[in-house]
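pasting for ref
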Amino acid sequence: MTTITATNDHCDFPPVETLVPHAATMLLIDRVLAADDEAMCTEVRISKNSMFFTTGHGVPGYVGIEYIAQTVAAYSGWRVQSAAPGSTPKVGYLLGTRKMTMNCDWFDDGATLSIHVKNIFEDGEMGVFDGEVRNGDDILVSARINVYQPNEPSPATDSNQDTTDP
């Protein structure tokens, strides 16, 4: 996979919780590091307080697909807020993945991971992104994901996807 790098490195990104419409417990990425018109890089630090953390192992590697999906959500939210400051990000859905590669079983306690996504294709409500979860220069997870973001929200959907309550 081609290296995915956002080129606009600056520290004035909004807090990630204003970009990703998830409840606090399901918001898994920590902050935005860089972004440009086609890509974004975020960060997550693995600790015993991380969602899905298992003592003695860390966070399962398959959670990397959600780190990638949430970075895509942050990219979408950042684009919306850049165009119209103060806007609320729209809800989106991870439809599936292809070409997923996992080079680890666990993300280790104490690791600081960077998540890189690049917009490959966008057509109205549908999008395709390449994503990588890295520890330094090591690619731990890579995937091409398909996403859907409806133009009009469903009446049953509020602005905060609280997946912690039934």
